[in-house]
Amino acid sequence: MSAVVVTSANEKYAPLLRDLLDSLEPHRGALRFAIACLDLGLTEATRNEVSARIEHLVAPQWPFRPHAQFDQERHYLSRAARPFLPDLVPGYAVYIWLDADVWVQQPLGLRWLMEAALTADIAAVPTVHRTYAFSARDIDWLTERYRMAFGDGLARELAALPYINSGVMALKAGSPLWRNFAERFQGALERWQGSFLSDQAIVNATIHLDGLKLQRLPARANWLCHLALPRLDEQSGCLVEPAMPFDPLLIVHNTFDNKQNEFELQTQKSQPRKTRLTHSAIRPLSNHSQVV
């Protein structure tokens, strides 16, 4: 099976992109995946650096009909380009999307995504875990993004359903979601009411409204840190779930607004450890034990 991991970044996100690439590198030989990056405004120096580390560096163009609000802003391209990944990076059986603020702690998460994508129209992780705590802001955020794309009535209906975080997802090349996603994206653009273009809301609507088959993976395959801070296992140096049995996180998603914030992580035995949640901050703590 041929697989490609795709992400995107502008220069602001270049440090996170480097972290993501660093976290992927040890697993490329065993899992045999390529890497692609959508260039949304990297400097020439960063483009040269990244090109040397990956197979594909692509500068996407606006793929929909012209839009007065969005098509001139390159940072929106990461959202608008996602329905067209098989066209932008052709020739792979499975496409794994990882946001640039994601990093891989253990390769089992990548293996799950690759294998699950072949059994469904999309493999992704619902925002469901016994330790997740949703604030009023989280609920309002979700409802408002649905409302901007689909109006009040459908927004209320969709907001009541389990929400899929599209920052980590995998699809086979022939998945019907690509076409449906693009069509619903264009439809949403034509009636958009708001200031934020949310492809994640459209992915969720496409799954629910079109009856597509979703392979649901556990929360530790896309741990949303703003919903529950992970715990630090002192022995392994790994981030783990913050409740028994303290299973190790596989893919860490630094979903805070400020990606460089420091947090006091609880540990099993010692005092809380203050650290950022980036790969470059956590890696020195780890003994690099891996689960393949």
Description:
The structure is a single chain. The protein has two domains: 3-220, Spore Coat Polysaccharide Biosynthesis Protein SpsA, Chain A (Alpha-Beta Complex); 222-285, no CATH class. The chain has helices at 14-24, 28-31, 44-51, 77-80, 85-88, 108-117, 136-150, 152-159, 177-190, 199-209, 279-282; strands spanning 3-9, 33-39, 56-58, 94-98, 102-104, 122-126, 164-172, 214-216, 223-224, 231-232, 239-240, 251-253, 262-265, 273-276. The strands form four sheets. The chain has a seven-stranded mixed sheet, with helices on both faces. The protein contains eleven helices and 14 strands. Helices cover 32% and strands 20% of the residues. Strand 10 (231-232) and strand 11 (239-240) form a beta hairpin. It is α/β, with parallel strands linked by helices and 292 residues long. Mean pLDDT is 94; it is low at 288-292. The chain starts with a strand and ends in a 10-residue tail after the last helix.
Roughly what percent helix?
Answer: 25-40%
The CATH topology label of the largest domain is Spore Coat Polysaccharide Biosynthesis Protein SpsA, Chain A
- Inertia-based shape: globular
What is the terminal-to-terminal distance?
17 Å
- List the strand order in the largest sheet: 3-2-1-4-7-6-8
Characterize the biggest β-sheet.
7 strands, mixed
Regarding CATH, which class of the largest domain? Alpha Beta
What is the overall pLDDT average?
94
Q: How many domain modules?
A: 2
> Beta fraction of the residues?
15-25%
Classified in CATH, the superfamily of the largest domain is: Spore Coat Polysaccharide Biosynthesis Protein SpsA, Chain A
Total strand segments? 14
